[in-house]
Specification:
The protein has 24 helices and 20 strands. The chain folds into three domains: 2-144, no CATH class; 170-467, Alkaline Phosphatase, subunit A (3-Layer(aba) Sandwich), CATH 3.40.720; 498-700, Alpha-Beta Barrel (TIM Barrel), CATH 3.20.20.190. The chain is α/β, with parallel strands linked by helices. It is 40% helix and 14% strand. Helix 2 (14-42) packs antiparallel against helix 5 (72-94). Helix 11 (271-276) links the parallel strand 4 and strand 5 (281-284). Bound molecules: zinc ion (ZN). Zinc ion binds next to loops.
């Protein structure tokens, strides 16, 4: 069909072809710019979840999302990309068609090469024709529209469950279900976070907190859809049409209220509000006005809702700790402000973490305020709080936000806690006992409706006590991080930790030798001539050997060297190591050289000859957490067997590596830093002084022949 659309203009006059081409051109150009940004930011192509988070969450939230993720750098890249495309278009126009086949072919090859490099470096999630580029965009958009239709259908049909039953009598009970937003338990002191972000909830003796609850997704709607319905992780047997938690409550005759600080958006109703539409009463505080009220705006409506007589369930859907974090709390909650110069995190990253922690602390205050209001309510009362999903805030890599494409535990590990009043305790001692037994049970909120069924005594043929968090006594399984210890030889102790990045030429060496104690040099070993060629492929060799480079300075023995061996493998490792030993002896460089390679096995020959070595790790920081775990599990035995001196990877991976390889020395580089800049220079110097495991740091130094 797509091909038919593309070939359609053949039927038109040349005037129409131009218009058609212009429209298609603008569409492709606009979309591919947006897609480029998505690939940079999320390391994958847009899917229907992207459209959901853009069109569906709500307008303000979408803007906040774009505003937060679309930095000035991204802007320059996208605009640069568009300019490049326009220039290429102009150039192509001047080429006569018969001559242009070669040009088309080379452009295509350049394109293929570009994407191959990206996929080789693992910057991209797996992609195919259907999921990539504008085809995938259309597909994703259409599946998003289909889903939308499904929701509207859902709105019209109230569901009556077969086998509905309540086991006890209920009179004048008030139950509150608070759904948080983007709040990770890894930033809550209630869950052992080092900063006091939960002063109020921690002090409340009537709260049971569950320590191992995760959300099914890192996006609001896909997560809540499963949380509030029988749709689950393992099977797709049930859908929203089969009924939701609201239907269950309605069938029980509970009065239901939905209070939300997440807006209805104008044109499309948000799916979450479709779920909410079955409530007897709905209050959406966050309108299209453009201003984003703090969550406390719900407090008055909440009090009003608790006054109602009879059994009732009040849902409170918060804005929580969603981006922009700084917009989530009033000035007096600006509590965490400290920036540590000793941290390996940049100032900007630390600022972000501060605003997130402040938002978490405000969230603590807000939930405590809801509980305060309930203290004034007569009868059995409970309040359950959990977050739709978490958020990653530079917790182990250079990333903040949430995305299923690069999901990590920080995006799905959520708080889950239950507060109850004295009347509740008198009436439901059994439930509380079972809850206490299960505080350390692993649980996914995809099964939440079964827990709710237990907790609120609303059962039907679909509810399954086996899937309830509080239903049966389980053996407590506290989480333990069973990391196999991993060790490197840790024998790099150079007098200076700062070396100059990419010194691949004689001129370059002359330009930087007075400013640095050592250099990083890229080498390709030629097995036939047994020489090291100074070169960083795919750049063309300039025919400069390592020996000639070393011979060009008077006193090579006064410097340190980081040799990045580009083509070391099992076939050439012996020859390369022997040759390197020759060179080191000739120039009197023992103890001054580190040999780096991504092929850890091939470093063995160098280690046997007493060389210091660095294993260039894969870019784990760009893996999803599950893939990262798998990769690390397979790397650890290799590292423990080969025992290189240290591990190396760029600075983006630094916090991840310190967490995952706590006993290993690390070498790193970050080309964003410029030693000429006072702030950068101060940051790097403090960093290398304070981080004991960090042994070498490569910095950028601009010079005329930097290539
Ligand atoms: Zn969310």
């Amino acid at each position: 069909m797509f091909a038919a659309v593309l070939s359609l203009p053949m039927l038109f006059s040349s005037q129409l072809i131009r218009i058609y081409a212009a429209i298609i051109g603008a569409l492709v150009l606009g979309y591919s710019g947006a897609e480029l940004w998505h690939v940079i930011e999320f390391r994958g192509f847009p899917d229907s979840a992207t459209f959901f988070s853009l069109f569906v969450t709500n307008t303000n939230e979408s803007w906040a999302l774009l505003d937060n993720l679309f930095g000035f750098e991204d802007f320059l890249i996208v605009v640069g990309f568009w300019l490049l495309m326009v220039i290429m278009h102009q150039l192509l126009r001047r080429i006569k068609i018969p001559k242009s086949m070669g040009v088309y072919w080379s452009l295509m090859l350049i394109g293929v090469a570009g994407f191959s490099t990206l996929s080789y470096q693992n910057r991209l999630a797996p992609a195919n024709f259907k999921t990539c580029s504008i085809v995938g965009g259309f597909n994703a958009y259409f599946s998003f529209l289909q889903e939308q239709d499904r929701f509207v259908g859902l709105l019209e049909k109230p569901v009556q469950f077969s086998g509905f039953i309540q086991k006890y009598n209920h009179e004048n009970e008030t139950h509150v279900i608070v759904i948080g937003e983007s709040t990770s338990r890894h930033h809550m002191s209630l869950y052992a976070y080092s900063r006091i972000t939960n002063p109020k909830l921690s002090a409340n003796r009537n709260i049971i907190s569950f320590s191992q609850v995760s959300s099914p997704h890192a996006h609001t709607f896909p997560a809540l859809e499963k949380v509030l319905s029988f749709k689950s992780l393992d099977s797709n047997n049930y859908d929203l049409q089969d009924g939701t938690l609201l239907d269950l409550f309605n069938q029980a005759g509970y009065h239901t209220t939905w209070l939300s600080n997440q807006a209805l958006s104008g044109k499309f109703e948000t799916p979450v509000s479709v779920l909410a539409s079955k409530a007897d009463q709905k209050v959406f505080s966050n309108t299209m006005s453009g201003s984003e009220p703090y969550d406390e705006i719900l407090l008055q409506a909440f009090k009003d809702a608790t006054i109602k007589k009879g059994n009732k369930v009040i849902f409170v859907h918060l804005m929580g700790t969603h981006m922009s974090y700084v917009d989530r709390y009033p000035e007096k909650f600006n509590h965490f402000k400290t920036i540590h110069n000793t941290s390996h995190l940049t100032r900007a990253q630390q600022k972000y973490i501060n605003t997130y922690d402040n938002a978490v602390r405000y969230n603590d205050h807000l939930i405590a305020s809801l509980i305060d209001s309930l203290n004034a309510v007569q009868g059995v009362c409970s309040l359950l709080y959990f977050s739709d999903h978490g958020d990653e805030v530079f917790d182990y890599r250079n990333f903040h936000g949430h995305s299923d494409v690069i999901q990590s535990k920080y995006m799905v590990d959520i708080p889950f806690l239950l507060w109850t009043n004295e009347q509740y305790k008198l009436k439901n001692a059994g439930i509380l006992k079972r809850a206490e037994n299960n505080i350390n049970s692993k649980y996914n909120t995809a099964d939440f409706i079964h827990t709710a069924s237990d907790l609120y005594d609303v059962h039907c043929d679909l509810t399954d006590p086996e899937k309830s968090l509080i239903s049966h006594a389980t053996i407590n399984t506290p989480s333990c991080n069973n990391l196999t210890p991993c060790f490197t030889a840790n024998d790099i102790h150079f007098e200076s930790k700062l070396l100059c990045h990419r010194v691949n030429g004689i001129e370059r060496l002359m330009e930087v030798k007075d400013d640095f104690a050592g250099f990083e040099i890229d080498l390709v070993f030629d097995s036939t001539t047994k020489t090291f060629d100074v070169n960083h492929p795919p750049a063309e060799s300039v025919g400069l050997s390592l020996e000639r480079l070393l011979a060009s300075i008077e006193n090579p023995e006064d410097y340190y060297y980081w040799f990045d061996l580009k083509n070391l493998d099992s076939l050439n490792q012996n020859d390369a190591a022997l040759r390197m030993q020759n060179i080191v002896l000739k120039y009197n460089l023992p103890d001054k050289v580190v040999v780096e390679s991504p092929k850890i096995d091939a470093l063995k020959s160098f280690i046997e000859l007493q060389f210091r070595t660095a294993f260039y790790l894969p870019d784990l920081q760009n893996y999803s957490e599950v893939d990262m775990r798998k990769a690390i599990d397979s790397l650890i035995p290799l590292i423990n067997t080969v025992r290189p001196s240290a591990l190396s990877q760029q600075f983006d991976a630094y916090s991840l590596l310190t967490q995952q390889f706590p006993n290993c020395d690390l070498l790193t580089w970050d080309l964003r830093f410029d030693l000429e800049n006072a702030d950068d220079s101060q940051f790097i110097n403090q960093l290398v002084n304070q981080q004991d495991r960090l042994k070498l740091f490569l910095v950028r130094k601009e010079s005329d022949s930097y290539r």
